[in-house]
Amino acid sequence: MSISYSKIILKSGKDQSLKRFHPWVFSGAIKKTEGPLAEGNIVSVHANNGEFLGLGHYQIGSIAVRVFSFQEVAIDELFWKDKLRKAYQLRLDLGLTNHPDTNVYRLVHAEGDGLPGLVIDFYNGTAVFQMHSIGMYLIRNELSKYLKDIMGDQLKAVYDKSEKTLPFKADIEPRDGFLYGDTVAGLVSEYGNLFKVDWEEGQKTGFFIDQRENRYLLQQYSKDRDVLNMFCYTGGFSFFAMRGGAKSVHSVDASGKAIDLTRENVELNYPNDPRHEAIVADAFEYLRDIKDKYDLIVLDPPAFAKHREALSRALQGYKRINARAFEQIRPGGILFTFSCSQVVSKEKFREAVFSAAAISGRTVRILHQLNQPADHPINIYHPEGEYLKGLVLYVE
User: Fold this and answer.
1) CATH of the domain spanning 6-69
2) Contact 242/249 with Cβ under 8 angstroms?
3) Among 28, 53, 135, 387, which is least packed by CB within 10 angstroms?
4) What is the pLDDT of residues 42-56, one digit of tens each?
5) 104: which strand partners?
6) How far apart are the C-alpha atoms of 347 and 353, rounded to whole Å?
7) Contact, 310 vs 240, CB < 8 A?
8) 202-223 b/e with 16+ CB inside 10 Å = b?
9) Are strands 42-46 and 6-10 parallel, antiparallel or unpaired?
10) Is 43 helix (H, G, I), strand (E, B) or coil?
């Protein structure tokens, strides 16, 4: 490799995770550095004996290096294009790039696609970039150009929404905006249901694509049921419940803005449908007294824990809210319950839900164990990428 990068030398014994292809180098594993270091620079990572381990972006913080190559290769246009092309090919193989009823999917899923620090969601012609590392942010314009070269006319615009996701310690002032093209928030279709996506003001990149298959599954359980969609955001689960023949659907969220968007989306799909009601309310307060009102409840809260220090409190939160649902749901009811907290493992989430069931004294059976869809792939060497956990439960 002709280009020489600054080096990160690891402490003895701290090279094993990289030898198992885990893409993170923690700051505490670093013994010394050689050469100038600037946040976002490409660095070469080496074992204490000098053995090459990988190339990645340097960053100030707990995760000091995000490795994107375990081979000593040139990091140039061909390298990045190959990474993006492979990510696109996977979605092509999954049938998502030309699906007759769905034009929204995740195009790049960070470590899951060998591009740590980069998320790209595709919304009916617009790719929304969200960077979680300075290194990816610094090459955003190049990545936008490479993606256009790969996708051609399928790609109408690229919007960068990294202002709130980049590390706060970074010495930059990011501003959200278009890198290519100039479209406004538009409509997308998911299995034929229409959604208005606002990537400029909405949460994440504008929509929670990771629940696509779980929403579709909910549709199959909704016929003649009274449905509560708690933490509804823009109403995704609600529309699929209505499509499945639900008797009534109540969408509840603490955010008035989310409820307004839910109402807009309902009108797009089921105008003037008396089955639906949107309610602004706190989840725990709303669940305090709904005895026998619903026989299908969806609990899809925001991440209760974003770092390990909050894990214990988060597990208590999951236990409390699920206990409320178990106590209130009608006999023969179905509970869809989720955690999107990366630091909450499948086992810990299940323990919290099981404890909640025991508190309620109800007989509960597992019908499905859910996770993120295939366009959110999990790097087998990076189990932290499995962030979405869900259970579908039958409550007697």
Assistant:
1) 2.30.130.10
2) yes
3) 28
4) 999 999 999 999 999
5) 123
6) 10
7) no
8) bebbbbbbbbbebbbbbbebbe
9) parallel
10) strand
User: What is the spatial distance between Cα 131 and Cα 279, in angstroms, rounded to a whole number?
Assistant: 33
| CA R_g for the chain | 22
What are 88's strand-pairing partners? Answer: none
Strands 126-131 and 157-160: parallel
Cβ 244 vs Cβ 264: under 8 Å = no
CA trace torsion 78, 83, 85, 86 (10° rounding)? 140
Task: State the pairing for strand pair 187-190/193-196.
Answer: antiparallel
Largest Cα span, the chain: 70
Which one-letter amino acid corresponds to residue 228?
A: L
The pTM score is 0.93
Amino acid identity, position 86: K
Domain with CATH 2.30.130.10 in the chain: 6-69
Start-end ranges of CATH 3.30.750.80 in the chain?
A: 77-187
- pLDDT, one tens digit per residue, over 316-353 is 889 999 999 999 999 999 999 999 988 888 999 999 99
From 77, 17, 8, select the one nearest 42 (Cα to Cα). 8
Angle 346-360/311-328 helices, nearest 10 degrees? Answer: 40
Give tens-digit pLDDT for 64-86: 999 999 999 999 999 999 999 99
Superfamily for domain range 77-187: RNA methyltransferase domain (HRMD) like (3.30.750.80)
- The CATH H-level (homologous superfamily) assignment of domain 208-395 is Vaccinia Virus protein VP39 (3.40.50.150)
The set of residues, in sequence order, having a beta carbon less than 8 Å from that of 164 and lying 6+ positions away, is: none
Tokens standing for 363? 């007989």
